[in-house]
Design brief:
heterodimer; A: alpha/beta; 5-stranded mixed beta sheet; 6 helices; 39% helix; globular; B: Cell Cycle, Spindle Assembly Checkpoint Protein, Chain A; 6-stranded antiparallel beta sheet; 6 strands; 30% strand
Amino acid sequence: MARHRAIAGSPARTAGETWATISTLVADTLGKSSSITESVVTTVMNDLSPAGLALVASGHLQKHPLTVVAEPLYLTITTVEGEEAFSAMDEENLSPVPGATTATTWKVYLPSPVGLSDLVAEVVAGSEHASAASPPSESVTKEASASNGAFDLRRLDPKNRD
Amino acid sequence: MPTSTATRVVTRAHTATHLSNAVAGAIADILGRLGISSRQLMADWPRLHDPAIRAWMEEGSLAAIRVECTQPGGKIEPIFEFPIDYFDDGSVELSHRHVAIARQWVKINRVPAGSAVAVKCQYTGTHTPQSGWGSCDMAPTSHLNRVNFGTLAAGPYASLAVRMYTS
């Protein structure tokens, strides 16, 4: 299920506060899954923070979202900057995003604009939960989720069992 | 039918936050183009740089933020400067032109491996001491060419430009 959250940024928050807000939202959301350890998510988001702060501060996250894929949840997060940041702060929903309770895997995809691509690559290097690649489209993850959950009826026939 | 409206007052503190954020994003982008990692600098930014820069902008004592790149041979180049202009106009709209300005940064060449950067501040006069900051010397720029990139960000009471010094 596709969900989106808009987080108030500059000047309602400093870039560091904005990234901390995003990190907490992601950790709270994924922490609802019994298969995902919230402290692990917090650690990963903390590791990503130098690039996260730069993406927030440069304004790139306004148009190019951070994407969290935790099937069946497909969460995109953008920031709101300028005068609109104040109303965005009044309206923003920082409660855990519904949809991750049955998730067993998760990955955070950071946008990788020119100028920040080396930094993004540096912070995601070696992480199984973060990527600088383009996120899979929501329809692709939906298909994968559906096929993972499908039961092969042919297996009811003893001849087809391994 | 009764109506109401809410008016936000954008204060000097908001503008200081806005400009400090813009500087952080620009420095990370510029260092990336120079081929220098900004990982540690961005990790330190919320604790070390941001509080000091915002405080000095709010009191109007910060004249410019500088990023000096020292190459392995000792040459200090390029130098990036973010001069701040203070004014009394509280009606200036918040703006941030990172994407537009960054298009000009294709002119920035990578520096040799092993180059390092220092973030320095220049003041208009008396300024409140901030934790982690001490006095330092500024590298000379008189022998370098100046390239102006224009206004990076602005808001009520202050604006911030970017320029580069290079040979």
